[in-house]
């Protein structure tokens, strides 16, 4: 699996409509992404060596983080600059990545009882300062990669904890449901990452579902961009509206579902629909999203019943069943989940 947080259509628009450093950075980012995708398909990802202690002790509870510095080259994993239990480095990107990986690990470990992404204590490896002006963050199937952004429209990609949680969630999906990165299954793949990335952010901030902003990537845009974030789960289609990068194209319901061959069949676009369903389910029961709706979505993702080519309707049905199994057939949670999918037009 190879996934990036900034969709290609946004970078293409920036490369065509923009000028100067941001446009050049967007074009370079697209080239790097294509190259990395090709390397992943060829199996040459530059996988960091394991340190040999996966599962050595049953009582291990540390995240086993390893942060590397690419030093603005396009090499992976780069120089090891901070590992588990080491002191802060003083490099903001290094220390933000270390913290974000830890917050994500704690959500899975403490709430879901999961031992890292693969449930077998996989080390959490990240590379920062990847390339020059690289406008993206990616999960390449084995590790995290963060660019520094162009500094004019995009800030560094470690700045938002939910971006870190988003990309790591692609790893969880890879090791569980294995959702194909195309069409509705691909949009569900992207939505799972937004859901769990948002849960990482909300749990870190100790926010209830009703108080959270439900934005993905808040702080990633500089003040030059007319936008709040990359996506909004609360109001898909409203995250940004800018003369240079365009308008957020996400639909909130099936009425506006986008049929397209771009972006792997609209995986970053139509993910707004299941995103909004999760938001509706989580806020209908209020409380803390990771303790109700989050548990239901996790049960489905890891339950072994999701087919790789899963569509929205199948996933919706599985979440309703999971809510009934965990909370009872007539529970508020089961009602909230069913109502949410009806509200976005997935189930009748």
Overview of this structure, please?
43% of the residues lie in helices and 9% in strands. It has 348 residues and is of the alpha+beta class. The protein has two domains: 3-42 and 64-173, Roll (Elastase, domain 1); 183-343, Orthogonal Bundle (Neutral Protease, domain 2). Helix 5 runs parallel beside helix 7 (272-285). Residues 44-61 have low confidence and may be disordered.
Rg result: 19 Å
Structural class category: alpha+beta
The coarse overall form would be globular
Ranges where pLDDT stays below 50 over 5 or more residues in a row are 44-61
Strand order of the largest sheet: 1-5-6-4-2-3
% residues in beta strands: 5-15%
Helix content: 40-55%
Text of the CATH class of the largest domain: Mainly Alpha
For the largest beta-sheet, the strand count, sense and barrel status come to:
6 strands, mixed
Counting structural domains, the number is 2
Count of helix runs: 10
Termini separation comes to 33 Å
- On the 0 to 100 scale, the average pLDDT is 93
Q: Quickly give the CATH architecture of the largest domain.
A: Orthogonal Bundle
Order of helices and strands: EHHEEHEEEHHEEEEHHHHH
| Strand count | 10
Summarize the structure.
The chain has helices at 8-17, 20-42, 92-112, 161-175, 183-205, 263-266, 272-285, 293-302, 312-327, 332-343; strands at residues 3-4, 65-69, 79-83, 124-128, 137-139, 144-146, 215-216, 231-232, 241-242, 246-247. It is of the alpha+beta class. The strands form three sheets. Strands 1-5-6-4-2-3 form a six-stranded mixed beta sheet, covered by helices on one side.
């Amino acid at each position: 699996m190879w996934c990036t947080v900034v969709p290609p259509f946004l970078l293409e628009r920036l490369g065509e409509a923009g000028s100067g450093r941001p446009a050049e950075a967007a074009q370079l980012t697209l080239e790097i992404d294509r190259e990395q995708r090709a390397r992943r398909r060829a199996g040459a990802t530059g996988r960091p060596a394991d340190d040999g202690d996966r599962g050595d002790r049953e009582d291990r509870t540390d995240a086993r983080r390893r942060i590397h510095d690419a030093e603005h080259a396009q090499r992976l994993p780069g120089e090891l600059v901070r590992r588990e239990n080491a002191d802060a480095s003083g490099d903001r990107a290094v220390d933000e990545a270390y913290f974000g990986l830890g917050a994500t690990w704690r959500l899975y470990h403490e709430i879901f009882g999961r031992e890292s992404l693969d449930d077998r204590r996989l080390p959490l490896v990240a590379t920062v300062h990847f390339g020059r002006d690289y406008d993206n963050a990616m999960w390449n199937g084995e590790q995290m990669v963060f660019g520094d952004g162009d500094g004019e429209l995009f800030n560094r990609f470690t700045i938002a904890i939910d971006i870190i949680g988003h990309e790591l969630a692609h790893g969880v999906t890879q090791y569980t449901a294995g959702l194909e990165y195309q069409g509705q299954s691909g949009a569900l793949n992207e939505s799972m990452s937004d859901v769990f990335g948002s849960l990482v952010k909300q749990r870190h901030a100790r926010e209830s579902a009703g108080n959270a902003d439900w934005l993905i990537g808040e702080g990633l845009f500089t003040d030059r961009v007319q936008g709040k974030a990359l996506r909004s789960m609360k109001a898909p289609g409203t995250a940004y509206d800018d003369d240079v990068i365009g308008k957020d194209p996400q639909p909130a319901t099936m009425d506006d579902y986008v049929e397209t061959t771009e972006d792997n069949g609209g995986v970053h676009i139509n993910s707004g629909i299941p995103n909004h369903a999760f938001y509706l389910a989580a806020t209908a029961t209020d409380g803390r999203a990771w303790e109700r709706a989050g548990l239901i979505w996790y049960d489905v993702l890891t339950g072994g019943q999701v087919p790789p080519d899963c569509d929205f309707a199948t996933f919706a049905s599985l979440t309703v069943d999971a809510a009934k199994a965990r909370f009872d057939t007539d529970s508020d949670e089961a009602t909230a989940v069913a109502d949410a999918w009806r509200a976005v037009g997935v189930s009748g």
